[in-house]
Design brief:
One of its GO terms (cellular component) is melanosome membrane. Keywords: Cell membrane, G-protein coupled receptor, Glycoprotein, Lysosome, Membrane, Receptor, Transducer, Transmembrane, Transmembrane helix. It holds the Pfam family Ocular_alb. This is G-protein coupled receptor 143. It is built from 14 helices and no strands. By secondary structure, the chain is mostly helical.
C-alpha cells in the first residue's frame, strides 16, 4: 500500500508508532499486499483490453479526458507493480530487510532498496492523485469548451512536475542530514507527511466542488441544445452526476483508511509510552486500519476502471487492427456495440445556416459524450437525440 510510513521505516532510528505497524505480522501484511495488488493489476488490464464483438467508436476528435483516464489507470498499474515487487523482496529475503535496522551498517543496498521502492510507490500514486484532479478540471473546462488535446501538455507538466517535486522535497527533508540521523524529531517527519497527503486532500476537497459545477454546466448545455429539457436530457445529466459520484466513492473507500491510520499513529507518537494499557484500543485500531490499507490501496486501479467504464466483460480481443489506437478507442468505448456517428462531410448543397447550427450542436454533443464515455444508455440517448443523428 502507499503510506509515508514506508519511507519512515527506512530510518534505523524510526519512531515507535512506525515500528509498531511495520513489524506487526509482516509476512501476513506483505501477503495481503501482494494478493490485493495482483488481483487489481490483472482485472485492471482485463478492463482496458479491447473486447470481442465491440465496435470502436469513431470520435470527431480525440478527447483529453479519455487520455487522462488512461493515465490514471497506468499510474495505478505501475504503483501496484511497485507494491508487488517490494512485498515479494520483503517476504523472500527477510535477512536482507533486517539489515535496514542496523545503525551505521556497511551494507547500503537494504536501505537503497527500502528508499527506492517506497519512493516509486509514493510517486506513482501521488501522480495518480494529480491526474484525478486534472480530470475534474478538464471535465469542467470541456463543458465550458475551454479544453482540448492542447491542454494535456499543461496537465503533464503540472502532474509530473508537482509529483516529483513534492516527493523529492519530502524525502530530502525526512532524510536530512543523513539516513542514519532521520526521525530524530517530528520536524523531519511532518513535512514528509504533508507533501505525501497534500494531493490526496486536494482531491477530497476540490474534486467534489469541480464535479458539482460541471454537472450544473451540463444541465445548462442540455437545456440550450434544443431549447427544452426533456426526460432523456434529465436522465443523461443524472447519469453523468452518478459517474462523478462513483469516482469519488471509490477514492474515499480506498484512501479514508490511510487518513484514519495516520491520525491514530500520530496520536500514539505524542504519548510517552505507546505500550500503555489505556492505549490498547488505539493500537488495535491502528493495526486494523493498517491491514485494511494493504487491501484497499492496491484495489483502486480496478475499482476506478469500473467507475470510468463499467464492467467491460471477459471476452478479450487481442487481434491487431490496422489504423486503430486500442487504448484511445477503449477509453471512449461502451460495453455494447454502439458507435458514435462519424463527423459529417457537408456538401455544397446544404445551407450555411444549417451548417452552423449543426456544428454547434455537434460541439455540444462532443462535450457531453466525453463525460459519459463508457455509459451505454447515455451514449445511445445522446446519439438518438442529436440533430446529426436525426438528419441521417
Amino acid at each position: 500500500m502507499a503510506s509515508p510510513r514506508l519511507e519512515t521505516y527506512c530510518c534505523p532510528n524510526r519512531d515507535a508508532a512506525t515500528q509498531l505497524v511495520m513489524e506487526f505480522q509482516p509476512e501476513v501484511f506483505c501477503g495481503v499486499c501482494i494478493g490485493s495488488a495482483s488481483i487489481s493489476l490483472l482485472l485492471t488490464i482485463l478492463q482496458l483490453l479491447p473486447k470481442k464483438g465491440q465496435s470502436p467508436r469513431k470520435m470527431p476528435k480525440a478527447s483529453s479526458s479519455s487520455t487522462i483516464l488512461l493515465l490514471i489507470s497506468i499510474c495505478d498499474i505501475l504503483g501496484g507493480l511497485g507494491m508487488i515487487f517490494r512485498s515479494s523482496v520483503w517476504l523472500g529475503f527477510p535477512g536482507f530487510i533486517a539489515n535496514i535496522s542496523v545503525v551505521n551498517g556497511t551494507d547500503v543496498w537494504p536501505s537503497t532498496f527500502c528508499v527506492g521502492s517506497a519512493m516509486w510507490i509514493q510517486l506513482l500514486y501521488s501522480a495518480g492523485f494529480w491526474w484525478l484532479f486534472c480530470y475534474a478540471v478538464d471535465s469542467y473546462l470541456v463543458v465550458r469548451r475551454s479544453a482540448g488535446l492542447s491542454t494535456i501538455v499543461l496537465y503533464h507538466m503540472m502532474t509530473w512536475g508537482l509529483a516529483v517535486m513534492l516527493c523529492v522535497e519530502g524525502i530530502a527533508l525526512l532524510y536530512y542530514p543523513s539516513l542514519s540521523s532521520c526521525e530524530n524529531g517530528l520536524e523531519h517527519a511532518i513535512p514528509h507527511y504533508i507533501t505525501t497527503y497534500a494531493p490526496l486532500l486536494l482531491v477530497l476537497v476540490a474534486n467534489p466542488i469541480l464535479f458539482r459545477r460541471t454537472v450544473s454546466a451540463v444541465a445548462s448545455l442540455l437545456k440550450g441544445r434544443q431549447g427544452i429539457y426533456t426526460e432523456n436530457e434529465r436522465r443523461l445529466g443524472t447519469e453523468i452526476q452518478m459517474r462523478f459520484f462513483k469516482i469519488m466513492l471509490v477514492f474515499v473507500i480506498c484512501w479514508s483508511s490511510n487518513i484514519i491510520n495516520e491520525t491514530l499513529l500520530f496520536y500514539l507518537e505524542m504519548q510517552p509510552d505507546i505500550n500503555e494499557m489505556p492505549l490498547k484500543n488505539i493500537r488495535s485500531a491502528a493495526l486494523i486500519t493498517w491491514i485494511i490499507m494493504g487491501v484497499l490501496n492496491p484495489m483502486q486501479g480496478f475499482l476506478f476502471t469500473l467507475a470510468f467504464y463499467g464492467w467491460t466483460g471477459w471476452r478479450v480481443d487481442l487481434k491487431w487492427r490496422k489504423r486503430e489506437i486500442p487504448w484511445e478507442s477503449m477509453s471512449s468505448s461502451t460495453v455494447g456495440e454502439n458507435t458514435y456517428p462519424a463527423p459529417v462531410n457537408y456538401q455544397s448543397n446544404i445551407h450555411d445556416s444549417k451548417k452552423i447550427s449543426t456544428t454547434d450542436s455537434q460541439q455540444t454533443d462532443e462535450a457531453i459524450s466525453m463525460l459519459s464515455e463508457g455509459n451505454t444508455s447515455s451514449d445511445e440517448r445522446l446519439t438518438r437525440s442529436s440533430p446529426i443523428y436525426q438528419g441521417w
